[in-house]
Structure formats: structure tokens, C-alpha cells
Amino acid sequence: MGNTKKKEAGFLSKIVRQQLFIPIAALLILAVFNLIADPSFFKITMGASSTGDPVLSGYLITILDYGSELAILAIGMTLVTAASGGQDISVGAAIAIAGSVILRVLCGTNSRPEELQTSVFVAFIAACLVAMLFGAFNGILVAHFKIQPMVATLILYTAGRSIAAWINNNELPIISEPTFGYYGGFIPGIPIPTPFFIAVICVVITALVLKFTNLGLYTQAVGINEKSSRLNGLNPVFIKFLSFVILGLCVAVVGLIKVSRFSTINYSVIAKDIEMDAILAVALGGNALSGGKFNMAASILGAYVIQFLTTTLYKFDVQSDALPAYKAVVVIILVVLSAPSVRAKLSQVGKKLHAKEVA
Amino acid sequence: MMKKIKNMSDTNMLLTITIVVFFVMYFAAIAFLGEGFLKPQTFLSILNANAALIITSCGMSIVMITGGIDISVGGVVALVSMCSAVYLDQKGGNVGGAILISLAIGLAFGIIQGYLVAYLDIQPFIVSLAGMFFARGMTTIVNNKPFNVANEAFVKLKDTRVIVPGLGSYNRLGKYIDAYVEIGVVVALLIVVLLFILLRWGKLGRHFYAVGGNQQSALMLGINVRRTKFLSHVLCSLLAGIGGFVYFLHVGSGSPSHAMGMEMNAIASSIIGGTMLTGGVGNIIGTLFGVLSLSTIQNIVSSAGFDEAWWTGITIAAMLCLFLVIQSVVMARKKKALAK
């Protein structure tokens, strides 16, 4: 009898120790909460898009749609977190810049173009280059000048939206071309939102890169111990720099989705507070915010869970401006639970309970 | 001369750089932008507009000297001014109560954040990032529309001018106009003096430097590192609360968009003022000059014709970047020189 109990406890603790446990548990809690509060949350209906094509709609589809943006960002943010032990808080501002560049290239000098100046692909490449350039700027400050990542990215966080407005002379270009809206909306005939497919592509590429190159290994090595990884022949400065450039690439992809959603841009509102969500996704994925080992799948799942939380809050009529207050509480709970001293205490309590049970 | 510079402590060297930069900039403003900057009132106006920033920057400096950071100050300032505004305007409260509310909010933020940072070993940046979002969210929950406060006693206090003797000037009609500062400036300067004394000669102040310089050796010296860190965060948030009330006194309204980006300005002022991000180095007088330099360059930028709103953000970011790099380079060179 006692033996089976011990085995069960061992099995349970094994599950709990899995990194994917945290986001899955959070997801289950949220799902159960919604199921009790209002089961209509899970209803998916067939609606019609603005062009009249049949598309799926419902809260779950919204989560899939907006969570995909966050998942793409979480990929880059996980790498930055793992390599530098800090987070990039300028992603929201950088998305504004990338979106602004896309519109600028597509529209040229005319802010209400009848037809696009170049193809969307060219504009996207330009945005990638610019976003990677800003990523490189952050990377140099962090890797070369050894400034704390969050302070270094604070520079772009302040200036980013101003730069985005400056790129378009503070005008708000509007693109009337319907095909431009495909990236953030629906492709005619496919009822699932496009951002999900873009996220899948990004995830597959990331998985391949992590599988066939040493990027993951090197990043973790630098994050765990910079000095010893240097002694082992790695170049920590370059690895850190690279992680910020990769994040820049992710930012450009999200920028494309964001501007495509509305076919225009609002410099002060676009991707507002998204840095908080991206950091939360990484933390919820059970990755240490102080760097080192990471689990990409957990981060990506974490991103969708965060969006689940956001959508749930929206459903209960929480104002969008008040959202950060609730999320901040979640962050605090998460970091407190993952703090080393709290963990030690919790495991002590667990051991005591276990000892009592055995006795 | 070179030898003297080399022997200077880090704090004094960075302070000297700051003061020199400020005077160069102010003289440049006089030279290029004309007589306006020669009037004492122009300088006093800079003080009037930035009294709240001076107070919050002082708090930021203390946290940074201790080796942490607090980016929630802007949010706390917005929350404090909104709560005070709601209390005075809609709840019919008095000014004394509003001041108490401000202090209480600041203290509450300080105690919670300080506890998380000092006793649970969570990165200060994450804690205060959550604090910033919490404060901003709470501000909208308290009231989501900007509004002016019409409370009589408050308006009287807001319009009180402290006249500075001997600095007035004559206007075009030859009429003498007194130079004045607002009450907030008096509070700010008082706080600067008090903190300067605390950091220079106070036991707690020296502990801040010791912990920021090297935690391990501070611990060996018998300093209670956790308590010192805790107190630095409490002090910072408390000052943010005071700064919030001074800000409220200056603008006289509550709004969710108040003090946007103030945490950035405070960090920038501290860094320009010679406080090192790595801790252990810094000076309150430097911070005062950091705020003045920052607002002088903002004035220069806007009166030089770049008056679109985005230039302000870009200028501050550029200045911060420049000073961060200067610090990084100066310290690296000094380390090399010492190693020789």
C-alpha cells in the first residue's frame, strides 16, 4: 500500500517537474474557469468575413489569431532571454518601426496610393533589414558595451514610436489594396486566420534551425556561464548579438501581421504593451528569466496561454487600458513562485507533508 | 593634471563630466538661441517644470547606487496624481488627505517591490516592470478620463509663487516682474539637500554605496544587505509618491496619460548625472544637474525648430545612449590603467 503511494508520488513529481507542466496547467485552469463561468466561450461559429468568404469565428479563433503574433515574438524573446539573461522591452516600439517601414515602402510618398509601389515581399524584406538593424543596435549595446539588456533596450523603447512616426512624416498611410489584408486576416477560401499559418512556418523554421545547428546549445552555454563558454571556444559577444538580430527578424514578421490587420498604422497604439506579453510567455513557459536553459515549445505554448488569459479578461469587460494591472499580478505570482528561496521553502513544505503521509 | 584626474574617485569624475556638460550646453543655448536663456526666469521655469522629475530622479539614483533599478516610478506618479485628483474633486477631500494618500501609495509600492527584490531575490527590472504596468492599469481603473481639479484650497496652493529676490527682470514696457518658483521646487531642493547629506554622511547612505559597489564584501563587513536593498526601494517609491504629488501640484489635473515615459527621463537624468547602472557610483547633485541638462537640451531642440513631439523622445534616447557608452568606455579605460 505504502509502496504504491510512493510510486504515485514519484510519478506525480515527474509530471510536475516537466517544463511543459506550467503552461499546460495554466491553460487547464483558464479553460475550466471559462467552462464554469460561461461555456459559450468555446463556441466556434462559421461567420462571413468582410469580403463575404466563410470564416471561422469565436473566442478560440481569436486566441489562435492573436496568440500567433505572440508566439512568433516568444521565439526571439526566448533566445534573447537565454543568451543575455535579460529581456528586450523594445519589441513593441520595434514593431511600430517595422510596420511603418512596410507602409512607407508600399506607399512611397503618397499616403493614399491607388496601387502599391512595390510588391509586399519587397516591403517585408526592407522591414526585416530595418528591424534587424535595430536588433543589432540593441545587440551591440548589450553584447559589446555590456549594458544590462533591459536598460539598453529602454533606449529604443522610448525612441521607437517616435522613429516610427518620423519614418512616415507622422502621416497615417492607408492601403486600399485588399490582398494586403491577407497576412493579418484571412486568405479567401481558407477559414483559419493567416497569422496561424505564419506562426507555424516560423515555428518549423526555428525547430529545424535548433535541430540542425548548434545555436540552441551555444545560446544555453553562454547563458549559463559566459566565461567558461568563452574558454571553450565560443564567442559570447557574437551569440548574444545574434540572439538580438534574430529577435529583430521575429519583430519584422509580427510588424507585417500587425499593419496588415488594419491596412494602416497608429504609432502610439500598435503593439502597445506587447513586450509585457512576450516576457510573460517566456516566464510562463517555465524558462528562467535570468538566462541559461530554455524550452522553445514551452514558450510558444506560453504565448497562446497568455492570449487565452487576455481574451478571457476582455470577455469579462475589462477595459484594454486596465488589462496591464491584471497581467502584472500574474507576472508577480509567476516570478514569486519561481524565485529560488520560495521554491526551497515550497519543497520543504512538500517534504514535510510527504513525511507525515509516510508516517 | 592627468594624474589628478586618474586619482579622482569614479563618483567625482562622472559628476565633473556632468556639470561641465550642463554648463557647455547652457552657454551653447545662450550663444545660439539668444537672450531668452540669459533671463533668470528661463532657468527658474526649467526648475518649475521639472520639480517632480528632480524628486523621482533622486529616488532612482538611490536605487541605482544600490545596484538595482525601478521603472515603476512613472506609473506611480500617474497613479498618485490620479488618486489625489479623484479624492480632491469627486470625494470632496482636503489637501492634507491628498498628501497622505500620495505618501501611502508610494510607501505601499516601495514595501512590496522592495520585499520582492531584497528578500525573494527577484530581478528588480521584472518586479518594477510589473509594478509599472500595475500602476498604469490601476490609474485607468480609478478613472479613465482626464479632468481638472477645482478644489479651492488646492488651486490656492497650486498658484502660490515663491518670489526669488534680486532675480526679476524688466519687461518691454519697463515694468519690473518678479522671478518666482513654485512650491514644488522648494520641496525638490529640500529633498536634494537632505538626500545629499544622507548619502554623504549618513550611515544608511554609506551602506547604499557599499552594497552597490560589491554585495559580497558589504556582507563581509557586516552590513545587512537585504535590509539596505529593501530600504533603497522603499525610499525610491516614497520619493516617487512625493514626486507624484508635486507633479499633480504643477499640472492640477488627473489623467491616465500623465507622466508617460517619466521613468525613462528619471533613468536618463540619473545616468547623465553620473550614476552608474552597475551600482556603487553616483551623486545626488549630479542627478540634479542631469535633470537640468536633459531639460535644457529639450528646450534647445524645441526652440531650434524641431518642435514635433517625436524629437523629444529621440533626443532623450540619443543622449542616454551617448552617456551609457561614455560610461562604459571611461570605466573600461580606467580599469585598464589601474591594472597596469
Architecture overview:
- The complex is a heterodimer of chains A (359) and B (340).
- With 359 residues, chain A is mainly α.
- Chain A has one domain: ABC transporter involved in vitamin B12 uptake, BtuC (Orthogonal Bundle).
- Chain A is 69% helix and 2% strand.
- Chain A has 14 helices and two strands; from the N terminus they run H-H-E-E-H-H-H-H-H-H-H-H-H-H-H-H.
- Chain A has a two-stranded antiparallel sheet.
- The longest helix of chain A has 27 residues, at 236-262.
- The radius of gyration of chain A is 22 Å and the shape is globular.
- Chain A starts with a helix and ends with a helix.
- The two termini of chain B are 19 Å apart.
- Chain B has a single domain (11-28, 41-331), classed as ABC transporter involved in vitamin B12 uptake, BtuC (Orthogonal Bundle).
- With 340 residues, chain B is mainly α.
- In chain B, strands 1-4 form a two-stranded antiparallel ribbon. In chain B, strands 2-3 form a two-stranded antiparallel sheet.
- Chain B contains 14 helices and four strands.
- In chain B, strand 2 (161-170) and strand 3 (176-182) form a beta hairpin.
- Classes of the chains: A mainly alpha (359), B mainly alpha (340).
- The A-B interface holds A 86-87, 89, 141, 145-148, 150-152, 154-159, 161-163, 165-166, 170, 273, 276, 279, 289-290, 319, 321-329, 331-332, 335-336, 339-342 and B 69, 71, 116, 119-123, 125-127, 129-134, 136-138, 140-141, 144, 256, 261, 264, 267, 277, 308-314, 316-318, 320-321, 324-325, 328.
